[in-house]
Amino acid sequence: MCGIGGYFARTVRAPEVAERMLSTLRPRGPDAQGLLFWDARWQRSAEVAHNALLHTRLAIIDPCPRSNQPMGNRAGDVWISYNGEVYDWQEDARLLQAQGYHFDTSSDTEFILHAYEAWGLDMLPRLRGKFALALLDLRQNCLWLLSDRLGQKSIVYYHDGAEFAFASTVRALLPFLPAAQRQLNAAAIDAYLAHRYIPTPATIFSAIHRLPPGHALRFDLHSRELQLHPYWSLQEAERPSKSWQDELAQAIQLRTTADRPVGLLLSGGIDSAVIAWHLAASQHREISSYTVAFDDPVYDESAITQRMADELQLPLTKISFRSDWFQHFEAIVADLDEPFADPGAFPLWILIRQLADQVKVVLTGDGGDELLAGYKRYRQHLHSAWRGPLRLPLPILAQAQAKGWRKTLTEASMSWQDAYSLRFSGMTPNQRRWLQPDYCGPHTYWRQAPTRASNPLQQLLDIDRINVLPDYILRKADLCSMSHGVELRSPMLDHRFVSALLSRPQQELYTPVPKAIFTQVCPLITSLRLLKNKKRGFSPPLGAALRQGLADRLPELGRRLATLSAGQLDAARTQHMVDSWQRGEHGLDEHILQLLILDVSLSQLKTLAES
Fold first, then answer.
1. How many structural domains comprise the chain?
2. Do 149 and 168 fall within a single domain?
3. Band (282; pLDDT cuts 50, 70, 90)
4. 580 and 468 in one domain?
5. With contact defined as beta carbons under 8 Å apart, do 184 and 205 qualify?
6. Do 252 and 279 contact (CB within 8 A), yes or no?
7. Model's pTM, two decimal places?
């Protein structure tokens, strides 16, 4: 797990550009840093050069210096800078060795490098795991950027028609951008207000784009042209020959492979219980588990996680989420890279920071809810599925509040699919129009599935799998963990398991009690009656923090946001929303947090863009 970056410029760039990019990525890869330069004729250069590849390494497999990156082949005409972890590749490596490829390391990086040498992009079906990788192929005069199938690893890029650059994060890419290209994206600000994050392919800067999951991007080193195409979709995925139960067991087992200590994030939910059960059954009791303990019993699940750990004989460490978490507010916002307002990011960041000294690899249950309709919002929204694309021709009325009849009218003015965003996202179209009287964006910024499912539940699951899962759940997990040099692994997002599971009949998958199918592989679910537990989520109580630790940020918030957004957010109306909340208006806690995060994030990005 690492940070990656690079650039391909028409003119010479000072070495400080690459050094600043590398410095920004260093928390993602604290164990080693690598930087290579080439001139315009692709001769290696000491410093002053047109082209660069860079890498910061979190060493998990074969942590010796021989596996550091960027890594090149023996001829020096193919290079890789790679972030991720690929599993179950050893048999394919033996095929390559039989073809004459020599392996100097035991790393998955070298396997991918030789696999590409031998098979080109035909190697992709052989990559089982998560990855954001760059392959510089001087034989074919191109650079490939590749994202994994389900969006576990992210990569952003810049292209002005002639020059090209990429990095793991937006902030790492900024040092390369010319000053004129460091303009905020107005649509991204509106998208953030709508969804609490900025959906792919947009970022907070108009000139920076995010590579969608399951896509390949080719940059031609001669013509300077880009070509983008998908290489994988769930609808066309080959179904594994093994059962979903076997695929899940193997997915969990493979993700315990590491040359560094491994742990497990344990919640009171079904998904992490399934993983914990498999670890215990496989005699992996040397793997420690970790959970967050909240002071408020409404949020705390540490009692049930303790019962799980005791029954499975897994060591459990409880990490307290203190009420003074807001002391880390600016650091957490910075580590989230661009405006991102999931309240669950705060306890996750603190949890990872606390366990980073003990383990470097952590397994999580991410993905189970999106695969098997585990959220109650699915059932709530299905009640109105009869509407489909029908909508009332009602105008969007600028309103600061979003409750009662106003919310009902807002939902009726949207299609059924678009109205799904109101179940869990940020602000309604009415609230966005209120805050931005001179800006009118679409109802949602979600990407659409390649084909529209006929089943209403499947439509909602497609929305989440394509949008919410990669851009919200997984981006949060990656940013919070990698900011502390920790790798998160999600067995339930193994693409072979996903394909095998979703090939089952829908009546088997989507039962009245969500995720009951997992009782087939985890007796713990029945013994602890986990199916009856209320899903609590992972968000901290916000009211006290907003009224105490973050209260000093509220005065003049409207004015600051108006300035930072170049007038896109109206100062008086924004402050009116804040004042309404301070006077006791209910239902605005998360909106106020969203505005505070936007304020701090844009301020930090403005400073970086001007430096």
1. 3
2. yes
3. confident
4. no
5. yes
6. yes
7. 0.95
